[in-house]
Amino acid sequence: MYLNLDGEGPAYQQLTRAFKAAILDGSLGGGTRLPPSRALAQELGMSRITVLSAYDQLRAEGYLQSRVGSGSYVSELQLTPPLRPPKATPTVIRSRYAERAVLHAIRPTYRAHQGLRFELQFGETQLTPPLNNAWGRELARAASYTSLERTSSWGLPALREQVCRYLANRRGVQADPADVMIVSGSQQAFGLAARVLLNEGDPVVMEDPHYFGAWRAFAAHGAELQAVRTDDEGLVCAELPEVPPRLIFVTPSHQFPSGPVMSLPRRLELLRYAETNNCWIMEDDYDSEFRYDSQPLAALRSLDEGDRVIYVGTFSKVLFGSLRLGYMVLPAVLREDFANARYLSDMGGLAVEQAALAHFMESGAFERHLRKVGKALKQRREVMLEGLRQHAGDRVRVNDSPAGMHVLAWLPGYDHAQLDALIGYAHEHGLGLYPVAPCYQQKPAIPGLILGYCGLPDAELREAMRLFGACLDAIDARRHEPV
Amino acid sequence: MYLNLDGEGPAYQQLTRAFKAAILDGSLGGGTRLPPSRALAQELGMSRITVLSAYDQLRAEGYLQSRVGSGSYVSELQLTPPLRPPKATPTVIRSRYAERAVLHAIRPTYRAHQGLRFELQFGETQLTPPLNNAWGRELARAASYTSLERTSSWGLPALREQVCRYLANRRGVQADPADVMIVSGSQQAFGLAARVLLNEGDPVVMEDPHYFGAWRAFAAHGAELQAVRTDDEGLVCAELPEVPPRLIFVTPSHQFPSGPVMSLPRRLELLRYAETNNCWIMEDDYDSEFRYDSQPLAALRSLDEGDRVIYVGTFSKVLFGSLRLGYMVLPAVLREDFANARYLSDMGGLAVEQAALAHFMESGAFERHLRKVGKALKQRREVMLEGLRQHAGDRVRVNDSPAGMHVLAWLPGYDHAQLDALIGYAHEHGLGLYPVAPCYQQKPAIPGLILGYCGLPDAELREAMRLFGACLDAIDARRHEPV
Predict the structure, then answer these.
(1) How far is Cα B201 from Cα B192, in angstroms, rounded to an integer?
(2) B324 and A344: CB-CB below 8 Å?
(3) What pLDDT score was predicted for residue A351?
(4) Pick from B460, B435, B295: which is nearest to B371 by CA?
(5) Most distant CA pair in chain B, distance
(6) Of A99 and B148, which is predicted with more confidence?
(7) Number of H helices, E strands in chain B
(8) pTM exceeds 0.90 for this model
């Protein structure tokens, strides 16, 4: 008897696999009597127990039948048309969602320069030393007392309570824990909102420029997206469309990526428009903890007497990227719908992480961490601005905002092709630069870069700025080369 | 000047809030000059610093304007129509998804008896002592070396590698880590598959009976669901529809909730149908680790030469419910679409948990845990079956399967109303019983109960069975009462 043993894993598994293959491809036909275990064991140089185990498994799975007193026989199976080889690889008929997801696949833009020495990413503060040990202790502590049962879709009550205290103290938002849902990062909040509020084709307004991650999240769900202009007071509400959207997505505390704070008159105008037109507003308060010129400014939600603002906050930016915890403050009338959608999505988050974070906040460690990060970021911003002045000079025009984790640098003397060349050249030399163009619905006339300063300590940042200047020099030199 | 201080939190915040309220409701009109800080401080009995901080905040947020040398003035703001009180609470226009989610809201059925002493839930093994300390140590260890950066949407490579080893060893599935996606529980897998594979209205086939959680997940996404009959060989493939579905959802290792293993001929028939009709199959292998009569049987995926089976496994049932980790083995042609959908959903899972689990598996602790749980479950099953024989007798007809975490008990001598009465009576007496009817598209003729034995230790289970008998006695007595 020829059996093809593949040499992988325990002997009885190899034997089982070999028999299955022979039976399924018909070389060991239905009704064939199998040799007695002792004989086969001898023939294959295996133990009898191995052969018996294989026979048992094959019998349990239906490949063999036993006849009392007369041994084991290969089952009669319907083997044609043959399953192997298959007729063809499966034809993928994508859903509309999947089609849109391919169209808007995010990864080529975000973290395109991962692994480079001077990666000017925006969004995750790298601290030295990192939080690992402190966080590990919090997790171990939390694991010892956290129930191993499921959390509700809303998240751990203790963390929701801490979030409410934080929001009252730092964002001027009076929220009840019953309105707070802990989410697995802002991205999950966007997806849940899209599912709950939008049918395919429903209109959504975002700012121009905007966070491309949120744009793509709503686009993948089939929203009809429109970007409305911003200026130095934020969203230009006078240009909101006459046909009202279902949802307006804004970053009022710190316009991403251009920087302005949405002024009070514009906030009132936006809330009035939403009230008149029965719109929802989603406020993405992504880095409000870090203001360098004043105390944090109250969130738009704090003005929201109409209970129309879905407030989204995140811990990922202030703690670390892989933590993936955030929260939403939901209008009361939306509680049930979001809870249903969350339950359907993943039933809720992990209890231990949430317990660890709740204790981290309650103990004051979070507050201390925020101050430490704030100090580091303020310093790094100074280093970057000085480095730009020194090495880039008037080749860049910086949209500074005394907040956050990045500056926007316009390059008025260059065109988009030259910016792409600069990015390519910089990448080859270990410097990761991110263009601002993907944040715009219409490509801006002047090319610009989002320069994040949160990922590198001061000394590295100085070097990065020097390198940036050198890359600009190289691109300048090329511009003056004879064609 | 009348200011309404609410007594909550730091004094300068109270003052800021009070000013904002007065300015926004018009009682402090645009252009009004604010008193000098010293004077107001004296009037309110606060420190001058407090008042200055409030003025600074209000200025930063746009409520006040400074005029050089002449103090601070209330900003001229557009305050009509007034935002407070709002015209009306927001009118919720639900998306179709949200409408369906309400219709299929799962929570009334699942864990309806949470908190009862004898809760016969099916799905989460409660061990004494619980895993807390061991898991806490794993987490702390993992936190110390796990990068705090984001994981990819696929999950931690180390865990995907461990999953592949486990699948090869225990499920007969030869998978490559590149095909394995770590998910936040099976529920997330269902949602991702629905989004990637189905447009609203696309047909999906499930078994009858089926896991209501999966049914509702696909229903919420708008699938047209059809349940196809099962018998003691599993899905009756001859009754698969002529108009083929996009997806067929099966539990071949252990039909949920009725128990049979899908026979080999039926597996071949199903794979052939899927090949002929270009369908996807989703295999929910939810409790395959626990077979009491043989080694685990190879998964349907192991026969899948056509690469059409999306295999879903979970750790939640073998470890603990709040862990919420599972995995999918994806057909190669679907990798990109699922990765896109996952990224849009929540970008991926938490690295530390995955690292902890990978180590737990690699160290052999997982294997030991499985053996321990398997032993406990096998014992508990015996206790339940003996208890049912002793206290329920022939009032129940048990669909036993030597596997898993529950038995199905039919009550041929009762109707559905009497079953509901039994469940209600049992609940009042601390016993949690779950009906099988929600698992059927068409209510079965005979009422039945899903009796989970995984949640209680032996002694409690014996008591639960005694109590069950007593509840049956009470319902029987009622039946013989004169009307």
Answers:
(1) 16
(2) no
(3) 86
(4) B295
(5) 95
(6) A99
(7) 14, 16
(8) yes
Q: Is residue A147 classed exposed, middle or buried when 0-12, 13-18 and 19+ CB atoms within 10 A define those classes?
A: middle
> Within chain A, what is the greatest distance between any pair of CA atoms?
95
Q: Given this model, what pLDDT does residue B122 score?
A: 85
| Chain-chain contact of A220 with B344 (C-beta, under 8 angstroms) | yes
Instruction: Count the alpha carbons within 13 Å of B435 in the hemisphere toward its beta carbon.
Output: 22
Stretch A324-340: mean pLDDT, rounded?
A: 94
Q: Is the ipTM of this structure higher than 0.85?
A: yes
Please list, in sequence order, all residues whose beta carbon lies within 8 angstroms of the beta carbon of residue B167, skipping any fewer than 6 positions away. B173, B174, B175, B299, B313, B329
Point out which residues pair with B328 in neighbouring strands.
B181, B312
Q: For residue range B321-340, list pLDDT tens digits in order.
A: 677 899 999 999 999 999 99
Which chain B residues have a beta carbon less than 8 Å from that of A185? 346-347
If one counts every other C-beta atom within 10 angstroms of the C-beta of residue B341, the result is 24
Contact A192, A182 (CB under 8 A): no
3-state class (DSSP) for residue B365:
helix
In eight-state DSSP terms, residue B288 is: T
Among A239, A123, A128, A240, which Cα is nearest to A185's? A123
Residues of B in contact with A280 (CB under 8 A): 90
pLDDT digits (tens, 9 = 90+) for B453-474: 998 999 999 999 999 999 999 9
Pairing of strands A224-231, A280-284: unpaired
- Report whether B281 contacts B274 (CB < 8 A): yes
Chain A nearest CA to B446, separation (Å)? 30
Task: Reduce the DSSP state of residue B272 to 3 states and report it.
Answer: helix
CA A205 to chain centre: 21
- Per-residue pLDDT band for A86 (boundaries 50, 70, 90) equals low
Do B107 and A196 make contact, defined as CB atoms within 8 angstroms? no
Q: Number of CB pairs < 8 Å for A and B?
A: 340
Integer CA distances (angstroms), A187 to A310, A312, B343, B381, in order = 14, 10, 8, 43
CA distance B413 to chain A (A): 34
Lowest-pLDDT choice from A100-109, B11-20, B461-470, B473-482: A100-109
